[in-house]
Amino acid sequence: MINTEQLNIEGKRSGSGFVCHKERLVGALSRATAERTMLFDSETTIGKRGFLSYLKALAGGNMVKVIPANGSASGLQANGKGLKVVCGNHQSYITDGAWLKDKMPLTFCQVRVSPSYAVMPNLGGNELAEALSRVLPFTDADDARPVLQCIKAVQKDGKLTLTATDGFTLGEISLDFEAGEAEALINRDDVKGLIPALRKAKRVKVSFDQKPDSDNGGLLAKSLIVDTELIKYSLASQEGSYPDYDRVFPSDFIATASFDTKEAVKACQSLLAIWFDDETKGLFRPLSLTVADNKVTIEAKEDRGSMVVSAETSGEARVAVAGNYLLKALRACGGIAEMKLASSKSPIVFTVDGYRCLVMPMNLPESKTVAEAEAIANEREAKAETQPEKKAEGKPKRKGKGKARQHEVEPEEVTETEEEREPVAVS
What we know:
Blueprint: E1 4-14, E2 17-21, H1 22-31, E3 36-39, E4 44-47, H2 48-57, E5 63-68, E6 82-87, E7 90-95, E8 108-114, H3 125-135, E9 150-156, E10 159-165, E11 169-176, E12 182-187, H4 188-200, E13 204-212, E14 220-228, E15 231-236, E16 255-260, H5 261-272, E17 286-292, E18 295-300, E19 306-314, E20 317-322, H6 323-333, E21 336-341, E22 348-352, E23 355-359, H7 368-391, H8 401-409
Parallel strand pairs: 1-8, 3-8
Antiparallel strand pairs: 1-2, 1-15, 2-5, 3-4, 5-6, 6-7, 9-10, 9-12, 10-11, 11-23, 13-14, 14-15, 16-19, 16-21, 17-18, 17-20, 18-19, 21-22, 22-23
Helix pairs in contact: 1-2, 3-4, 5-6
């Protein structure tokens, strides 16, 4: 299914063409994410970026009139398709297919003009843009996993839940929404262009649509519809099954910490910059997190450095995580966030104001100091265990009655049989 956008321009119809304010048309085209623009009921298609640049440079007046060329521009194109643009004393002709390139994506925005266009909003433009921007970093960039390249949008229980995961990290946010049940998988590339357009929108209405797809054997094709005062975006849903991520979230936690994520980001960046003799890429290096005594201690491997972040804590736990995953989660949370730990092998959970994030842990790195201390302790234990056996190898010497009685009350230290045991004189 091809993504299409409908540009809702306020203006007047002029035959098969239209008359509108030039800045209104420029504003709508600048928010469109599609690469191709269709006019006159799809009779003419031109490149959006080229058409937008042309309109911005157009001089002559504030109003623009766009009508079919109808072959009036002789010699421009054999089939006569194209458009005629009039702006004050300026007049020009644009051929059908202008500014189109061979590798240009098959995404379309269709210009439609009406006296007025009203949108009954159910979400704020900035609210939706912020929510999408917080989950977008968790999508996978690998084309081999198309489902994980998508953001999952689910309408259920009066909430609109947006989820994204790359298999190692996950971000999820829920917004208050209208009643109903529906879902769609929207590709990350479609969302990237939508976010800046939503920040400029005054009114936003989000809905889900299902209709037969003639290109897919008549099966139902799902779409996410985002309607603004200038553009109606129709984002096609990706086919596939999204992972059942709810069962990955731990239910019981042994330690929690509430701290400033901005302070933690600075600490992580300084610790990751310490390593200069490691083949591991900078951001992929592991960091250890220790929660205890109203602080979160972040450490680099092999005792190369550590930093302490003040926090409100309960319980104690230690876990290791890749630096790039941790930074991604901290930046997505922003401000004061709560970190929850179940064990050193369980996922790390971050929560803040209806947003939750999950990061998979790594094996705890063992520092040289810890390894040396454990080796010394093991050596001492081994000596302590073998020492009684060495004393029992020979026959006990009679240096006094006290020693003889000691051997009588501690037979477990003597390995000789009754026949081999030497008699002891008792007075």
